[in-house]
Write a structure and sequence with these properties.
Blueprint (H helix, E strand, L loop, with lengths): L5 H19 L5 E3 L5 E3 H17 L4 E3 L4 H6 L5 E9 L1 H6 L5 E8 L2 E9 L4 E6 L3 E6 L5 E3 L12 E5 L5 H6 L7 E5 L3 H7 L6 E3 L5 H13 L4 E3 L18 E3 L1
Parallel strand pairs: 3-4, 10-11
Antiparallel strand pairs: 1-2, 4-5, 5-6, 6-7, 7-8, 8-9, 12-14, 13-14
Helix pairs in contact: 1-2, 6-7
């Protein structure tokens, strides 16, 4: 990135996280979006902080999950832009299990090149830059470099990460090829981060997601030496497609 300080983006994600936590720590209203998923006051609070901050600090346009339909159409003309999910894991937020994140990614020519994933309730930060590597920082401690780990030789030794809220029939079929593997459940984009930091070997996402759900953690995975691949073609996941839905994918 040549137009903004990386630390500024991290600080902005943490600021959005603080706004989320102010609502998380008290009773909050839950609305319904058109797709029937819950939308909390926290989504919108974080959205405004991130969009306003990124537009003020950088020359890149911003696409958020909460952006207008007009912006979602306009972004097809963008080559470089910020792709954000102000609150990924809204269901986890509503359940109050802490497994939700603020996701900020820089997309350049269809690829995530930089990403920040911040879990404010867990006080855990992941940062990935494809040119500089990835790190994890917990509760203000010193950052620790992270890398994916070497895959086990025995399928029974695999650690497979799955969704806390969505385990599809396809996922259940996938894990039949890994008898006795350890299955770890997690919410939001933290699932990809478990692979990035070497705590899991593979994450098959055989259910629907949107580009903003995965972009930031995708950057972390790639910066940590991993891959996020189309489940059928084995090609890297692409961004700024006409349809913002992701295909099924495998993280490893």
């Amino acid at each position: 990135m040549n137009t903004v300080n990386t630390q500024d983006i991290i600080d902005l994600a943490k600021k959005a996280g603080e706004a989320i936590m102010e609502i998380y720590d008290k009773d909050f209203a839950v609305y319904d979006k058109s797709d029937a998923s819950p939308l909390t006051e926290a989504d919108l609070a974080a959205h405004h902080i991130l969009v306003d901050g990124l537009e003020r600090m950088t020359n890149y346009p911003v696409l958020s999950e909460e952006s207008s339909e007009e912006i979602k159409k306009e972004r097809l003309n963008w080559n470089e832009y910020w792709l954000i999910d102000p609150l990924d894991g809204t269901k986890e937020f509503v359940k109050k299990n802490g497994e939700f994140t603020v996701n900020v990614a820089l997309i350049q020519h269809g690829k995530p090149t930089f990403g920040v994933v911040y879990a404010p309730a867990l006080k855990t930060l992941y940062v990935g830059d494809i040119n500089q590597g990835a790190y994890k920082q917990e509760d203000g401690k010193d950052p620790q470099k992270i890398t994916v780990r070497a895959k086990p030789t025995q399928t029974s030794d695999y650690v497979i990460v799955g969704s806390r809220s969505h385990q599809s029939d396809e996922f259940k079929a996938f894990i039949q090829d890994y008898p006795d593997a350890d299955i770890v459940s997690m919410g939001s984009s933290l699932k990809l981060c478990l692979v990035a930091e070497g705590k899991a070997d593979i994450y098959p996402r055989l259910g629907l997601t949107c580009e903003w759900d995965t972009a930031a953690a995708h950057a972390v995975v790639e910066a940590a030496g991993g891959e996020v691949l189309h489940a059928e073609t084995s090609k890297p996941l692409q961004y700024n497609k006409e349809n913002l839905l992701n295909p099924f994918f495998i993280v490893k």
